[in-house]
Amino acid sequence: MTGKIIDGKEFAASVRAKVAEHVTRLKTDHNVTPGLAVVLVGEDPASEVYVRNKGKSTLEVGMNSYEHKLPADTSEEDLLALITQLNEDPAVHGILCQLPLPDHLDEELVINSIVPEKDVDGFHISNVGLLSTGQKSMVPCTPLGCLMMLRDHHGSLSGLNAVVVGRSNIVGKPMANLLLKDSCTVTIAHSRTKNIEALCRTADIVVAAVGRPEMVTGEWIKEGATVIDVGINRIPHPEKEGKTKLVGDVDFASAAAKAGAITPVPGGVGPMTIACLLANTVTACCRANGLDEPEGLTA
Questions:
Q1: What's the pLDDT score for residue 237?
Q2: What residues have CB less than 8 Å from 288, skipping those under 6 apart?
Q3: Are 265 and 246 within 8 A, CB to CB?
Q4: Residue 177 needs a FRET pair 20 to 30 A away by CA distance; which of 43, 114, 147, 167 works?
């Protein structure tokens, strides 16, 4: 069998369309426009591309975009002062501080200085605690995107066995908590897990977020399982000398031969991250104004 390809680009476009519809309703019915502030410290080329794409996507769905670009030598005091200003600005509903930060800045301190209700990355310790206890929180964008695609493919996730390969604070742990909340039976596998291949073969759902190129092969996958590949790794191109190619944490060809459904890399989970950032901003705006949250855009 060959698994169904879960098209992240197409799915992300549908999420952005839902966000745009809700933004229009907020403007028309409540005279409220969601606003997303992105803070970039330094001139990291990849971060600049991400910030530019986020700003463009924010404007395309009708939201307000506020970009704050600071020099690499910005002091911690000045950065925290800017975040305090954004925390207190009623026009700003979501705040994102682009990572990584320069070495002299304390990332945890900066992240936790954002008020939890505007933490659209879902990294604040309060949001982490709320999610882990099954309460309403801001949810990290990448796991939220994975959950949306799994719900769309399966309908109900209740009772399914899920293995999350990777235990990072950004993807692995919140992904496991989201799956638990949807009544999956969840195991987190990691570098010390024994018989990891056999464990994965028991899973109806495998989420690979370990950061090792093509680690999960078809031999790890149960016939008909759903495979969500979060990994983005650049490796030497096997056929073009001096070139590189993007691959996931899953060996796509062998896994697709066993899976019932699978996300590709690129074009799978990646496009969902910015789409879910926009969705989180709308959710934060609705909560700030005591309005109903957008259906289908939250966990």
A1: 87
A2: 90, 93, 117
A3: yes
A4: 114
Question: To 10 degrees, what angle do helices 125-132 and 172-181 make?
Answer: 40
Distance between CA 293 and CA 299 in Å, rounded? 11
> Which pair of tokens denotes residue 221?
């996958």
User: What 3-state DSSP class applies to 216?
Assistant: strand
Question: Residue 235 pLDDT > 80, yes or no?
Answer: yes
Kindly report the CA angle at 157 between 153 and 163, in degrees rounded to 5? Answer: 95
Report whether pLDDT(1) > 80. no
Q: For residue range 13-58, what is the model confidence (pLDDT) as tens digits?
A: 999 999 999 999 999 999 999 999 999 999 888 889 889 999 999 9
* pTM, to two decimals: 0.95
Residues 101-160 pLDDT 10s: 999 999 999 999 999 999 999 999 999 999 999 999 999 999 999 999 999 999 999 999
DSSP 214: T
3-state secondary structure 156-211: CCCCCEEEEECCCCCCHHHHHHHHHHCCCEEEEECCCCCCHHHHHCCCCEEEECCC
Q: Encoding tokens for residue 72?
A: 């690499």
Q: Which of 201, 259, 219 is nearest to 6 (CA)?
A: 259
**Residue 207 structure tokens:** 């989420």
Average pLDDT over the chain, rounded to an integer: 96
